[in-house]
Amino acid sequence: xxxxxxxxxxxxxxxxxxxxxxxxxxxxxxxxxxxxxxxxxxxxxxxxxxxxxxxxxxxxxxxxxxxxxxxxxxxxxxxxxxxxxxxxxxxxxxxxxxxxxxxxxxxxxxxxxxxxxxxxxxxxxxxxxxxxxxxxxxxxxxxxxxxxxxxxxxxxxxxxxxxxxxxxxxxxxxxxxxxxxxxxxxxxxx
Length: 190
Description:
Elements: H1 2-16, H2 22-42, E1 46-53, E2 57-59, E3 67-72, E4 78-85, E5 90-98, E6 107-108, E7 111-113, H3 119-126, E8 143-146, E9 150-151, E10 155-161, E11 167-172, E12 184-189
Parallel strand pairs: 1-5, 4-12
Antiparallel strand pairs: 1-2, 3-4, 5-10, 6-9, 7-8, 7-11, 11-12
C-alpha cells in the first residue's frame, strides 16, 4: 500500500509527458499507408460475397455481373448457380455462414475443384477428413482454391486466379452431406 503512494504520481508523470514519441507516430502513419496500399492493390480483384445457409446451399444477395442465380432459397435469397470469369482473372470469394446450429452440425466452406477432379471421390474422402476441416490432404492436387470452414456467424475468404484453360470448374462445400444436398455450383471460365 505504501508503494501505491509513490506509484500513482510516477504513473501520472509518465502519462503527462506525452507517452508517445514522434517515432511511434511515424510508425502508425507507415502502418496506415501500408494498409491503404494493400487496399489499392486489392481493388483490382473482383469480390463475390456468398452466404452458406442451413438449407445446404450457396446463396447471394441478388443479381450481379458475372454470376447466374436461381430460385430463391433462404429468406428469399437466390441460389448461386454459376460464376463467370475470364482466364487469369483474380477473384475473391467471401463466404459467410448463417446458422444457429453448432459448428459440428452446420459449417460451410468453398472448394474450387480442378476441371479433371473426381468430385464424388473427393467428397467421399472429405467426409473422413474432419481433423483437416473436411479437406482430404492426399487430394490437394484436385483443388484450385478453398476456404476454411465457417460456422454460424463466421466469415472466411479466399482469393485465387481463375484457370487459364477455358471450361467449367465445379465449386462445392465439402462438409459431409452438403454436396449431395446441392451445395455446389460452376465457375465458368470463358
